[in-house]
Amino acid sequence: MTDTPTDKPAVDVFWSFRSPYSYIVTPDLLRLREDYSVTVRLRPVLPIALRAKKTIFDASDKKRPRYIVMDARRRAQQLGMPFVWPNPDPVVQDRETFETPAEQPLIWRLTGLGVIAEKLGKGIDFAHSSAAIIWGGTPNWDSGDHLSKACADIGLNLAEMEAAIIPSEIKAEVEANHQALEEAGHWGVPTMVFENEPFFGQDRIDTLRWRLNQNWLQKVPP
Question: Which domain covers residue 177, as residue numbers?
Fold first, then answer.
């Protein structure tokens, strides 16, 4: 399995399956492909709760997580998108202490599928279709045929994707994405990077579009 070749300029998207803002940005990422002659590449990373818990989370201060949930919910409402905190949570975490056990099967499954989907040329499509069930209010999104249908809707086969997951290779790919995000000058998600310039947050899509316009990358209507 190899990455789909392209000679278009690329927008790298550092994206987490546990980030509500990553979920919220996915429709805008699809529109980027429609409006500009760019390749939009999904580069999955682990949630910051697993990447940088010690530097980000203070168990004695609940303002940050409370604000994120409140703000993401209202932003989704503003955009007309359903928003329900996932059941189950993709990350196993104590909500009081923010402690996370070493075993994290759900987030690694999703992240691995994201890596495989990108290799199949449909990373952003998978991010969009899977996030819709994870964050859109589907209970037990991880069981039954929910993920299978999300894959089928974009022309992918879940069983084939899972068979293609080699844990050591997925881990190496994700670590490379972590390093690339750091080198781009940021740590959060979603971060879009175009020509080494980071655009952090789902509310920076307009700024990214402005930059793409400066580079004359708009698609010309037929």
Answer: 10-214
pLDDT band at 53 (very low <50, low <70, confident <90, very high): low
pLDDT digits (tens, 9 = 90+) for 118-139: 999 999 999 999 999 999 999 9
Compute CA distances 8 → 16, 41, 87, 208, 220, whole Å.
24, 11, 38, 16, 15
Does a structural domain hold residue 25? yes
Query: β-strands 39-44, 10-15: how paired?
Result: parallel
Cα separation of the two ends of the chain? 33
Assign residue 101 the CATH number of its domain.
3.40.30.10
Alpha helix (H) ranges present in the chain? Answer: 20-35, 48-51, 53-56, 63-79, 105-119, 123-135, 146-152, 158-163, 167-183, 205-214
Q: Is residue 221 part of a domain?
A: no
What's the total number of domains in the chain? 1
Tokens of 6: 């392209």
Burial of 214 (C-beta count, 10 Å sphere; 0-12/13-18/19+): exposed
The answer to whether 128 and 32 have CB atoms below 8 angstroms apart is no
